[in-house]
Amino acid sequence: AQKITQTQPGMFVQEKEAVTLDCTYDTSDPSYGLFWYKQPSSGEMIFLIYQGSYDQQNATEGRYSLNFQKARKSANLVISASQLGDSAMYFCAMSSGGTASKLTFGTGTRLQVTL
Amino acid sequence: GAVVSQHPSRVICKSGTSVKIECRSLDFQATTMFWYRQFPKQSLMLMATSNEGSKATYEQGVEKDKFLINHASLTLSTLTVTSAHPEDSSFYICSAEPGGGETQYFGPGTRLLVL
Fold it and tell me: Please, are residues B45 and B107 in contact by the beta-carbon 8 Å criterion?
């Protein structure tokens, strides 16, 4: 069985600063995918970034980067130059066998960006 | 690209009635769609996986006779909550997979309130 753990229920960061949201995972599958989604108060789930278990390099998408440490089974999300619009819930998720299969979500981290 | 819509966005119904929620992939074909449920301040829990032209696969603990899923075409999946009760009140969100090893794209969700 797969498990995603997000130990930070809430985080604060000042505008323009960087913030790291933690995510650890557990799986016995040799091939898996790791995702981060953003959920604003409106409810929609916005895909941010993806990391495949066999990817050699850490994924980056604009201000988002994924710090993938396979041996430690962690996939932390780093948001650089935080903006007020980044305030939302952030969910880490995992799929087995790479992409495009059912996702297991963590409990989420609520990020609040302050002035 | 990769837009997924849901209708309705919000619905209030009386206990005992049935409610149908539609999930559409607007600019791509989705062989597989997923239905999730999210209670307030909780994570998304997968309810079922919907494959076009075949029966849905339900997660453990999800009543297939209560949550009817129909994936009639490559762009439409429907979830019908039959004989809804107040405990079915939740946020229901679908996702669609374009295929070819891409991530899932989520709809905006449907808030269901059963009185």
Answer: no
Q: Which of A99, A100, A107 sits opposite B43 (nearest CB)?
A: A107
Q: What is the pLDDT of residue B99?
A: 72
pLDDT tens sequence across A37-61: 999 998 999 999 999 999 889 999 9
8 Å CB contact of A44 and B106: yes
Point out the residue among B32, B91, B97 whose CB comes nearest to the CB of A43.
B91
Q: State the smallest CA–CA distance between residue B43 and chain A in angstroms.
A: 5
pLDDT, mean of residues A21-27: 97
Which stretches of chain B are assigned E, i.e. beta strand?
4-7, 10-13, 19-25, 32-38, 44-51, 57-58, 67-73, 76-81, 90-97, 105-106, 110-114
pLDDT band at A98 (very low <50, low <70, confident <90, very high): very low
CB-based contacts of B80-83 (< 8 A; 24+ apart in sequence): B80/B18, B80/B19, B80/B20, B80/B21, B81/B18, B81/B19, B81/B20, B81/B21, B81/B112, B82/B18, B83/B16, B83/B17, B83/B18
Instruction: Determine contact: A98 vs chain B, CB below 8 A.
Output: yes
